[in-house]
Amino acid sequence: MIRRFFSKIKFDKLVTHSVLIFVSLLSVFPFIWLISTSLKGGGENIFAYPPTIIPKDFTWANYTGVWSKVDFIGYFVNSMIVAGGTVFLNLILSAMAGYPLARMQFRGKNLAFFSILATIMIPFQAIMLPVYLITLKLHLVDNYGSIAGFVGLIMPFAVSAFGIFLMRQAFLGIPKEMEEAAIVDGCNVWQLFVKVLLPMVKPSLAVLAIFTFIGSWGEFLWPSIVLTKESMYTLPVGVNNLQGMFSSNWRFIAAGSILSTIPILIFFLAMQKYFISGENDGAVKG
Amino acid sequence: MFKYYGKYIPYLFLLPAAVILLVFFFIPFFQTVYLSFFDYSSSIYAPSLSGLDNYIKLFHSPIFYKVMWNTFLYLFIAVPILAVVPLFIAILINQKIRGVTLYKILIYLPVIVSIVVAAIAFKWLYADQGILNFIVTKLGFAPVGWLTDPNWALLSVIIVTIWKGIGYYMIIYLAALMSVPKELYEACDIDGAGFLRKHLTVTVPHIMPTIALVTTISAISAMKVFAEIYVMTKGGPLNSSKTIVYYIYERAFENLDLGYASAMAVVLLVIVMIFSLINIFCFERKKYNL
Question: Minimal CB count within 10 Å: which of A59, A150, A160, B46?
């Protein structure tokens, strides 16, 4: 009886691990195959049957080659500017908007609340055309200079209902006594907000920053609509462009794709607890 | 206490966000509806008011029906899989086993990698003489034109969306699984219930709200797919992998048929709004304190 019990447990664990290893492999295999291709030299047929995962004609040449032809540093800097600016504005604007919704009484509060809630229902994809026309009217495209171009990339995503509600929730969790004490000490509203309340909602600000960063970093649709100059390309747009540049040179396309993934991979591994802990469930998805 | 804030302070705090939302959400929203009543097809510089013509044209267009059919096919294939498979994986991970963090990281990896890179990686797997066709021929089948055969292209693109979503929904399910009382599982073990029975009778009823939530979120994101299609197939061959957002993009930014594209955008708006309303009022009430 006891023996059967143990053998059953072991079997269950074995099955569990096998399934999880299989799923993990499926998750990473497309990247492994891409890496494998990126490391194969000209002497090796990348279409060989049977395919070989370990390169026979190992080389870094595809990486140095694609690096010398494509301005990855430029794409990276552009992506950093856009993601950084988007995160910065989201933190400030969401915190500022979330605070009165959590703490103050004023006329039109319900209207403000439901208007913001309504934006959740409006997918960007359905309104992208007028957003583009407005951005053009405001001269926020790269024809008017790179600063205008960056501002145009950032502004439509400078604040989101998700962020506002996240911050509102965070402010709701702060005891009222904190505010009263600060007021008694002679703070004005702005000081109270910046010096007392913002430090207390740091955990929520961190969550908002990380998820906004990931969203902005991966954004593809909007930059591919507005950008006209290659020098303004963000990483996703630049990587998509590799396909046109090296039409059938899959070694270069693979090397370029892998190169472009390194920054976000480092970011993910450094911040993994925010993503996989499950405490921030239902956070934004692109 | 509230007196302290003064009359205008709340509005000043809301103002910056309000301006952004007004300029980049509300005005474009109404402009989309407005533009859909204009005819741009003869000239982009001289649109003419055409009433409901764009909608009439839309509902007489075989391509539009094809695109809507593709979009709903996307939904009907991707959503059930994304509601069930991540739950299964989450249940497996939610045990006292070794390597949980590593599994989570690996399975979550596709979520954080750029959709463009993911699409390129799959395009390479799907190549005519690629590794997938090697497996297929090894198994004794004829090679498949994954992205070039109209019968397969849509399915090939859907697979990428599913692959990229599994980790995301798995994490949502893992959070929900934490709330299931352990005693119930112990009771099941004593009764000698097997894996399937245990989870069908305890887990699933307990996390039903999360299953419903995942269903609506994944339905909304399936309605919005764009990058996968743009990078891999451009909607082809023969419109076989074209879904609504890609078609709107094509009509608006390539054909400059702003009115027609806007009419389609209104259709998209209506569908997504219905899903979102269900989502907000049925499953996410708590999040917004409604």
Answer: B46
